[in-house]
Design goal:
Blueprint: H1 4-11, H2 15-23, H3 30-43, H4 49-56, E1 61-66, H5 72-87, E2 91-96, H6 101-113, E3 118-121, H7 130-135, E4 142-145, E5 156-157, H8 161-175, E6 180-184, H9 191-206, E7 215-216, H10 225-228, E8 240-243, H11 246-258, E9 268-273, H12 277-280, E10 286-289, H13 292-307, E11 321-323
Helix pairs in contact: 1-2, 1-3, 5-13, 8-9
InterPro entries: HTH_LacI, Lambda_DNA-bd_dom_sf, Peripla_BP/Lac1_sug-bd_dom, Peripla_BP_I
Protein name: Transcriptional repressor, LacI family
Domain HTH lacI-type: 1-56
Length: 337
């Protein structure tokens, strides 16, 4: 193992500049930084991060809490966050909660014990989260992603879930659908799902129609045909279904096709998130597209500004768009009696 002075000499810089390239790379010109890193690689030098943390009282690590990584919506966001953090010389400490409040509390406590410099969190329900209430008494910057709390004041990077689902429902109404339902996972586990259901209700009420109760599935990303089938029978049978995320919508389409239903000829389906997988399946999924990479990048930028002692402007809800696919069509024409 060689020391930092040899790295500095090989790179043609001072020892202080070499040290700064590791501790605060954003403060060093890219050309100089690359020379230092190349010299470090050539000499097999590894900076002592623990010693740096003790000296600077900064771990250069950000804690990231997500509900799950099995849903691509969070994985795509995380990838953008990792790139943005690395560009500023930070690493990520990542954990998942499976929408369980107690796991959220345990994970955040562990991250605080590891002295992360800041937290990026997506919790199950922000306004009822004891974790967020407790964090307001801590001296650690926090940014939420996807959550848009009404009762707790914390910076948030998100979309307007209610308005987005209102627009998606409006598109189905414009196609002529009147029997429209909404499918969600355990509805009380996710404030985003509740907001999306409120948007669906807004659109139905505005059209003079009665919103249906949520078709609640046991999982956020997997449908259950037995739960779904009663809504597809009788003279009030649904001709269109909105799903609170794309994986759930893809699962619904699969269940319907296996049961002999035709999508979209009999039933139209719209998802929410805009994951790439939705464009690859058949029929391709119509979906409300969230700017996932932008959400991740903005979350890191806002958090690093807070860590630097700045007061960045609040992030306005990011725009969404409805991506039309093969999974929606006008409602079937009923034969004359």
């Amino acid at each position: 193992m060689t020391d930092l002075l040899r790295v500095a000499k090989l790179a043609g810089v001072s020892r202080a500049t070499a040290a700064r390239a590791f501790s605060s790379p954003e403060l060093v010109r890219e050309e100089t930084r690359l020379k230092v890193f190349a010299a470090s690689d050539a000499l097999g030098f590894r900076p002592n991060l623990i010693a740096r943390q003790l000296r600077t009282q900064s771990s250069r690590t950000l804690g990231v809490l997500l509900p799950s990584l099995s849903n691509p919506v969070f994985a795509e966001q995380l990838q953008a966050m990792e790139v943005a953090a690395q560009q500023r010389g930070y690493g990520l400490l990542i954990a998942t909660s499976d929408y369980q409040p107690q796991r959220e509390a345990d994970i955040v406590e562990n991250m605080l014990r590891q002295r992360v410099d800041g937290l990026v969190l997506t919790v199950a329900d922000a306004d009822s989260s004891q974790v967020l209430a407790n964090l307001q008494r801590e001296d650690v910057p926090v940014v939420l992603v996807h959550n848009a709390p009404q009762k707790i004041t914390l910076p948030s990077v998100c979309v307007d879930n209610r308005q987005a689902m209102r627009q998606a429902t409006g598109h189905l109404l414009g196609l002529g659908h009147r029997h429209i339902g909404m499918i969600a996972g355990p509805i009380l586990q996710s404030d985003r799902a509740l907001q999306r259901y409120q948007g669906y209700c807004d659109a139905m009420n505005a059209a003079g129609l009665t919103p249906a109760a949520v078709l609640e599935m046991p999982s956020h990303t997997r449908s259950d045909l037995q739960t779904l089938q009663p809504a597809l029978q009788g003279h009030q049978a649904m001709t269109a279904l909105l799903c609170t995320n794309d994986l759930l919508a893809i699962s619904v389409i699969g269940e319907l096709l296996r049961a002999g239903y035709r999508v979209p000829q009999q039933i139209s389906i719209i998802g929410f998130d805009g994951i790439d997988l939705g464009r690859l399946v058949y029929p391709s999924l119509s979906s409300v597209v969230q700017p996932l990479q932008n959400m991740g990048t903005q979350a890191i930028a806002h958090l690093l500004a807070l860590i630097a002692g700045q007061r960045p402007d609040p992030v306005a809800p990011l725009p969404v768009q409805l991506r039309l696919g093969e999974s929606i069509a006008p409602p079937p024409v009923l034969p004359l009696p």
